[in-house]
Amino acid sequence: MTRHFLLLSLLLALIPALNSAQGQEEITNSRRNAIVRAIEQVKSSVVTINVVEIHAEREQDPFSGMFDFYFRRPRVRGRLVEGLGTGFIIDQEGHILTNYHVIQNADRIVSVTLSDGSALDVDVVGADERTDIAVLKVIGNQELSFAPMGDSNDLYIGEWVIAIGNPFGTMISDPQPSVSVGVVSANHRRVSRQVGGGERLYQGMIQTDAAINPGNSGGPLVNASGEVIGINTMLFSQSGGDQGLGFAIPINRARRVAQEIIAYGRRRNPWFGFRGEALSSLNQSMLEKLDIHEESGVIVTEILRSSPAYQQGLDVGDVVIAVNGESVEHPLDIDFINWGLFIGDDVVLETRRNGKVGIVKFRVVELSAADKNV
User: Fold this and answer.
1) Would you call 239 a catalytic residue per the annotation?
2) Would you state the CATH architecture of domain 43-138?
3) pTM of the model
4) In the predicted model, is pLDDT for residue 222 greater than 90?
5) Is 132 labeled as catalytic in the residue annotation?
6) Does residue 101 carry a catalytic annotation?
């Protein structure tokens, strides 16, 4: 009886401790949630990219003016301007994906640093200005962590995402990246042509309210599974700081561009082989003379006989209404769709000729040197 009583007392004494341990474990598990695990999965693949640009500046000799006003000697000196961006390792070969604008004007890449402070020597493999993608490669053979890739075609509006990058530069001395959490605010955003000056494919973008600040450019946008679904690229801000309007290039497009750069050292230039003018730029009298009744679209004004579009039936005077199901109103709309495609991709043009609906199908070919003046 006494033994049973002692055992019961011991068990009763252990219950609070067991409950406390179980409660602590539950708290620990709740703290180490999906967001934390996702960051842990990608963090070691993120790099800081420091670059230097040399600005030439003319200055007067401060002493010459004291002696001879007419013979001042202008001098040119270089002013170093530092730049900062982010990138992430995408494969075991050590290829690093980042934005082209991170290295665009760089005279030298000063350093590429991992989150643990390790410095990497890198070469520039190639870049594509239109899609704002650049690929670097780590020199030498070493084991590196690389980020798992997700599917940017499989996104939910409102799902959690994490932006990882280096917005502070030398203000903070340690190399670990910063993270910010938000949601997918919208998908397939068509950013205004004026944002990229008509030269950058900021179309089909992922919009997020995860804070994206200067220095975050080129860093990964990660889902709650720890997979990269985009490249943090730009923010809309009137103050220069984050205002909850960040945009990322979808990783599916970025990966295809990167594969082209790795395979060919460049992005092969997709080409439709024709030019046009917006119907909105023509006056009503001209539209009547051309027997055009459409309110919007692009009229073909030049086309090469060697182009795949011409060979499949497109001709001067045809009005292109849509490309691959996307309505077009301006020649740059067609350019943006063109730049987002790759050699061998299928193209379907919806056209109008003399009021009749037409469909022109062909495959994208590479722009050759002989075609560049078209």
Assistant:
1) no
2) Beta Barrel (2.40)
3) 0.80
4) yes
5) yes
6) yes
